[in-house]
Structure formats: C-alpha cells, structure tokens
Amino acid sequence: MNDDILAAGRVAVVTGAAVGLGAAAARRFAQTGMRLCLFDRNADALTKTAHELGQLTTVGTVVGDVTSQDDLTRLCDTAYERFGDVALLVNNAGISAGAGPWGELPAWRHQLEVNLFSIIAAQSIFVPRMLAQPNRAAIVNLGSKEGITTPPGNAAYSVAKAGVKVLTEQLAHELREISGDKVSAHLFVPGYTWTPMNAALKPNGTPKPDEAWTAEQTVDYFVERLCRGDFYILCPDNVVTPEMDAKRIRWASDDMIQNRPALSRWHPAWLDRFAAFMRGTD
Questions:
Q1: Cα distance between residue 117 and residue 113, in whole Å
Q2: I want to staple 282 with a disulfide (CB 3.0 to 4.6 A). Which of 4, 69, 124, 276 is the partner?
Q3: Is residue 6 part of a domain?
Q4: Are strands 88-91 and 232-234 parallel, antiparallel or unpaired?
C-alpha cells in the first residue's frame, strides 16, 4: 500500500507537467494535499498550470528540458532544497514523433533521448537521494502499450517505450533488493487518452473521440492502482478492456514461443486466427 506516499504534505515531482497527463496528475496530487514540484520546457503553460494549482497547494516550478542532465539536476536540487524530501517522482514527459526501422538517425536519437534516456538520467539523479531520505518514496515511469505489443508504424517510439518497460522492471527489482519497500517503482501504461499530444495528430479542432478516456479518467485509474501498490498499471479506455489487453499481450508473447512471423497480429496470413483468438473461438 502506498497511502503514506500519496498523502497530504508529501511532495510529488512531475515532468511534462504543464499539460495533458502530467497536469492532470499534478492536479489530482494537489487535491490530496500533496505539495508539487513541476517541470516542463513550456514556460508559459507551466506558469498557467502552477498558478491554477497554487490555489490548492504549494507549488514549485522548474523550466527545463528532460534531455538535459543539468536541468534534471536542477529539478532535483530545487525539490529537495525547497521541500526536504520527495515522495513521488513521475517521469511523464515524452514525445510521439518517431521514425521507421531505417528512418533518419537524428529522429531516432531524439525519440530515445526524450522517451528513454531522460528517465535513465532522472533515476540516476533522484534514486540516491530518495534512498537516503527517511521517508518512503516511489518512482513512476510512463510506458505505452506500443512498448508491449509493439505495433508497426512507429518503430522508434515502440523501441523507446519497450526500453522504459524493461528499465522500470529492472529498477523495481534492484530497489526491492536494496531497500525492501522503502523506494518502489511502477510502470504506468495509459490506454487511449485524449491529451494535447494525441490531439496534435488529428485535424485542428477535432473533438475528443468516444473511444478515448480523458486525462482525468486515466489519472484516477492510475492513482487507485498506485495506492494499491501495483507495479504494472495498465489502463483501459472506452473501447479496450483489461481482458482485451491481456489477450493482445498474450498473443504478442506467443509469437516467439510458437515461432510465428514477427508481429503476426498484423500479418495477412494470421489476421483471421488473431480475430478468432480475440473472440475466444480459436
């Protein structure tokens, strides 16, 4: 149970906190009475969010880029100097623009720097200080279903998010071996959530699709599971149920076990068998 982490007076650090899931998470933490240290590269949006949440709790902000170790160090120093300890680090910042398997190397590097290496850097900075503080703490890394079932279409993003999954599993194990339950790690995997990042992929002015959850719905589900102490926090949406997610993950794992073609779920010769599997008739 993590009720002592998500508790009034404790401190949450959130990257990518100006809009979307990060802002929704910060708002939910503020509603529980947590104090906040928010990080984003968009100074204007961050100031707006901080002003709103400042009506509910104490808020510190740091403007910076997650690909800069200096900026992340400044975030950690600011949090500890102002608040004394950190209960929760949410590595939420990310991008979706990526590259194909033989895409341009700069696009690959940018995708990996933002979505994977920034988390590695944040962990290297925050974990020693979280282990040294007297109170329990948790680290949450933002994954993706595209890092688990790895659908075709955005190889660089899938590779980065698959890396986040493995990284967070390794982190959870090492923290458990070293500290017991003092510092824990959790993998947060949203379903289809309507955020500015997803909206940017649609024509300007597109309303929220019925299939998508709001950021607030996703965060509510996440907080409930985090309080329960779950490591894998795999969120549904208005179309994809937990049962559907489980079947898709099982099918993807069985590609290797059964020596099927790569990504057989999307292979023409396997489409009917996959559909039957999802229906439960295979």
A1: 5
A2: 276
A3: no
A4: unpaired
270 domain residue, yes or no: yes
Shared domain for 202 and 278, answered yes or no, is no
Residue 1 lies in a domain: no
Instruction: Using DSSP, state whether 204 is helix, strand or coil.
Output: coil
Domain extent at residue 253: 241-282
Which tokens go with 191?
């379903």
pLDDT, tens only, 89-108: 999 999 998 899 999 999 99
Q: How many domains does the chain fold into?
A: 2
Let me know if residue 225 belongs to a domain.
Answer: yes
How far is 29 from 88, CA to CA, in rounded Å? Answer: 10
Q: What three-state secondary structure class fits 251?
A: helix
If asked whether residues 278 and 158 sit together in one domain, one would say no
Q: Residue 171 carries which side chain, given as an amino acid letter? A: L
Angle (nearest 5°) at CA 96 between 91 and 102: 120
Same domain, 157 and 245: no
Whole-number CA gyration radius for the chain: 19
Kindly provide the residue ranges of all beta strands, DSSP E only, lying in the chain, ordered along the sequence: 11-15, 35-40, 59-63, 88-91, 137-142, 183-189, 193-194, 213-214, 232-234
- Exactly one of 80, 157, 192, 232 is catalytic; which is it? 157
CB contact at 8 A, 171 and 216: no
What proportions of the chain, in percent to the nearest 5, are helix, strand and coil? Answer: 50, 15, 35
Q: Is 157 a catalytic residue?
A: yes
Q: How far is CA 109 from the centre of its chain?
A: 19
Q: pLDDT per residue over 224-234, tens digit each?
A: 999 999 999 99
Q: Which residues of the chain have pLDDT under 50?
A: none
Same domain for 159 and 89: yes
